């Protein structure tokens, strides 16, 4: 007897809870790179509109890259640290309740599974078995939406944001520094548009969303930022 390929594929699929976490990290990296592209492009385009000095543009771009990357890293560290502190506090409260009121917690878990559509008998059986296996994990997942074994690391978040922003920021910076004066702005705009097309496409695919609207939004935002800063740089350049 031959096996049904569809059934084989379904059983072979990994059902690792960390997949969702990895996808979230990838989305965050894409957004960080997008921020690096847009903010640095706006900065160097604005400076290039005010001066043709390559060293001045490079200095401004590097300063913007460093400041932006550090800001992203610190912001992500603070944000994730706050989230992690909250999660740990909720888990500590759940541990205390499981220790002090195990029967009440079992009844609560049974009720939550029943509310999800299980029959009272099956809900009780599931609650009993999961409590015996991992009481805290069962309550944390259903009641709090937290995996006690997969709390996000603030340091990982900070480094991921810093690296993603830096990689994105290098694209417009390298483009505008290497290009000649006469074509540096068009070359940078083209590099930015192509890069934003890539981040827009990837973010849409990760979120299973339509690619067209996502790409149009991110490119429009980047072009608008460059147009505004270029206008400001041109205005300032004529006044100095």
What would you note in describing this structure?
The radius of gyration is 25 Å and the shape is elongated. It has one domain. It is built from 8 helices and no strands. It is 85% helix and 0% strand. Residues 1-17 have low confidence and may be disordered.
Rg (C-alpha, Å): 25 Å
Distance between the termini: 83 Å
What is the count of distinct domains? Answer: 1
Q: Give the uncertain stretches in residue-range form.
A: 1-17
Quick one: biggest sheet? none
Order of SSEs: HHHHHHHH
Q: What structural category arises from helix and sheet content?
A: mainly alpha
Number of helices: 8
In percent terms, what proportion of residues is strand? under 5%
> Overall pLDDT, averaged?
85
Helical content (DSSP H or I, runs of 4+): over 70%
Using DSSP, what is the number of strands? Answer: 0
Large-scale geometry:
elongated
Concise summary:
The chain has helices at 5-12, 18-50, 54-100, 102-115, 120-144, 154-178, 184-206, 211-239. The chain is mainly alpha-helical and 240 residues long.
Task: Pick out its properties.
mainly alpha; single chain; 240 residues
Q: Topology of this protein?
A:
Elements lengths: L4 H8 L5 H33 L3 H47 L1 H14 L4 H25 L9 H25 L5 H23 L4 H29 L1
Helix pairs in contact: 2-3, 2-6, 2-7, 2-8, 3-4, 3-5, 3-6, 4-5, 6-7, 7-8
